[in-house]
Amino acid sequence: MKAVLATDLSAASEATIRNETCLDCLGRIGIEEFHLVTVVPSNVHGGMPGIDFEKRRTNAIRRYSRVIEDAGFDVETHVVRGTPHRRIIGIAGTIGANLTIVGSRGKSPLENRVVGSTARNLARTTETPLLVNRIERGVDDPDVVRQHLFQRMLYATDFSENAERAFESFAYLRHATREATLVHVATPKDPDQESDPERRLGKLATRLEDWGIDAETVVRRGDPAEEILATEAEVNPTTVLVGSRGHSRLRRLLLGSVSEDLVGRATGNVMLVPPA
């Protein structure tokens, strides 16, 4: 499996790359090859401070590459110019990536608009599973918030087709997952209000237990994003796993929904699985 690891060479990105536990977790789920990507913003041009961004970033990304190679992975590096999320998506598609990884911390509401913008834009438009690796906020030398990426999973489902697609990610996540909490949030707008969510969650839990994962189920009622975040606070997972419906291209661009809320507001990591 191949992974794109996007870095802006910030402290948050460095925390993602230097963490050996995170690299070990990615190796367990089958990642063998990393493509380190850093994007020089398209509005940086001749005569502006920082014009040597390409050279500086190339030197920095080589250091990161050695860290990953020393952990036993194959690595390729890409220093490109353009709009970050578009170039990251383009490279992921070109190499046939199985996963895109980006670090995000959002130190303050203002910074979150800037530093977190790439993660949010990827959440809206990614065509491969996206892992947002949460980094400590408010410190000069940050570390990852959760050491073990996939050890304790919180899987949120509305029983849609794409939620099922997200669940199928356990086929490879199971090699690094020990526990999982499955949550469904019932709302007045649910198309299947008469369905039995406890039974349906129970069937999914049985599948996980067959894979050796301890599973529990939770049914809540209310606003989906708020209730999923409340469940995260209660069970303290390492990563929240969720699918994005995105029934149309327009809807994906205007996501503004549960999955984007989770990417922006979750305490820990978020893995977002887009539509096929």
TrEMBL record:
Record domain UspA: where: 6-132, 150-274
InterPro entries, per the entry: Rossmann-like_a/b/a_fold, Universal_stress_UspA, UspA
Pfam family, one: Usp
Top-level division of the source organism's lineage: Archaea
TM segment ranges: none
Family assignment from sequence similarity: Belongs to the universal stress protein A family.
PANTHER family on file: STRESS RESPONSE PROTEIN NHAX, UNIVERSAL STRESS PROTEIN UP12
Protein name, per record: Universal stress protein UspA-like protein
Taxonomic source organism: Natronococcus occultus SP4
